[in-house]
Design a protein that fits this description.
The protein is an alpha+beta fold. The protein has helices at residues 3-8, 12-31, 126-134; strands spanning 35-42, 48-56, 62-68, 82-85, 90-95, 98-103, 118-123, 141-144. It has one domain (35-144). The strands form two sheets. The chain has a four-stranded antiparallel beta sheet with strand order 1-2-3-4, with no helix packed on it.
């Protein structure tokens, strides 16, 4: 059955609604494409890891923060990457070959994460996390927020 045949059985109003629906199905998903941000961290030995975040959902209310060794990662794998699902914020400090993550929602340490850069998670309460967020930019503190 062709589109022309389908449209011939519909009233003018229904044809309009049908065509609008088709247009929305085609164009709307691209309006809600996930957004990504990455920060590259280089250790003293030249090795690199990446701190990233993926924000998605119809109202961009879903967040995944992650630490990976692959700069092309768009869907982190908890077997190989540190994956923080819907954290409020992450604050981190990177020195030499060590990355310390301050979070109120630590993640499972991935068995397949291969890096000479040491990653350590420090669980903090919301009040401490808020204080750390205010210290971003001081003493090497950095953060991911949304």
């Amino acid at each position: 059955m062709t589109l022309e045949t389908i449209l011939s059985f519909m009233s003018k109003r229904n044809r309009q609604l049908f065509l609008i629906s088709i247009c929305l199905l085609i164009f709307l998903p691209s309006c809600f494409a996930p957004s990504y941000a990455y920060t590259e961290l280089s250790g003293e030995n030249g090795e690199k890891i990446f701190v990233g975040k993926k924000v998605y959902g119809i109202s961009y209310d879903k967040v995944v923060a992650f630490i990976t060794t692959d700069e092309r990662t768009i869907d982190p794998d908890p077997k190989f990457d540190y994956v923080f699902n819907n954290p409020r914020s992450l604050v981190y400090r990177f020195t030499k070959d060590s990355l310390v993550i301050y979070t109120n929602r630590p993640c499972v340490i991935p068995e397949g994460f291969k890096s000479q850069i040491i990653v350590r998670q420090v669980e903090v309460d919301d009040s401490t996390l808020h204080t750390l967020l205010e210290s971003i930019g001081v003493n090497g503190m950095r953060g991911i927020s949304w």
